[in-house]
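Moderator note: this is an archived Q&A kept for reference. The question asked for a predicted structure of one protein chain; the sequence and the answer are reproduced below.
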Amino acid sequence: MSRLIASLYPKKTRQDFADLLRYGNIPKEPEEYITRVFFISLIGGFALTLFLRFFLDWSIFILIPASFLLINGVFYTWLNLNADSRARYVENLLPDVLQLMASNLRAGLTIDRALLLAARPEFGQFKDDINRVGKEIATGKEVGEALMDMGKSIKSERLQKTFQLIVSAMASGGQLADLLQQTALNLRQQKLVEQRVRVSVLTYVIFIFSAIGFGAPMLFSLSTFLVEVITDIFSKVQLPTANVATNIPITFSKITITPKFLNAYTISSLMLTSLLGSLILGLISKGKEKEGLKYVPVLIIMTLTLFFLIKYVMGKLLGGLFNI
């Protein structure tokens, strides 16, 4: 059953799910996980379609596939963010691990013992990875192969390059302890530089977040309320008949924009703005667009809530003045 449902997905998508489950250290079979995602997306897609029908006058033949793909995308994005979160956690601990290994090697230990003793309880899940690699080396597996396999299980380019450097140094007969010590120092310096960059761009992040989260819904609520007022006023204006001559240089025509269309357009615009703005925030703050996807739900909920709240308040305060 699971294999049949998983086969409905493209081969590349199935492979991506399998890789992300491995990167995130999630003990699930890819086919079983894809099957679960399929049924959740199917049920959630119908529920989301019923909800969106209240705001968007779109065909269900468009909303159902779009909702299904959207929920699948949410699961895929969550796996991506989980894998990246684990990679960042490992990268933060990597300098300490390398420094401990260097100290153990200088004390005369072999590389497998140096690696095992570098696994401290405070390293969390990374401690289990280090122990696994150390045991593989102790049972006869080549050091370079064990380290590179560990790099393939974590979605970190920095970790893979570090292990490649260690393997190359071992092959060339270099001083491994000195290399590990210098690599740990370089990684710490690189981390300090990244932190300084994040602090310098914090102003841009705050400005973009405020413009999307507060400015956009405020302007949209004001504009939609204004259009509703103008539409209501012009609907009560008695237009002159064709037989009556007039010298007024104004041409009246029927307004075809409806409040329902305007609300649908506003909601779509706010959601699209939240998505694109989140990608920009991720690119500025972390250097990767996908890092900003975690802001998407927050911005969408914030913008839509403020839009309807401001519009409701304006309707209560000014609705009586314009008799709408």
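Archived answer notes: The chain has three domains: 2-86, 92-199, 201-239+251-322.
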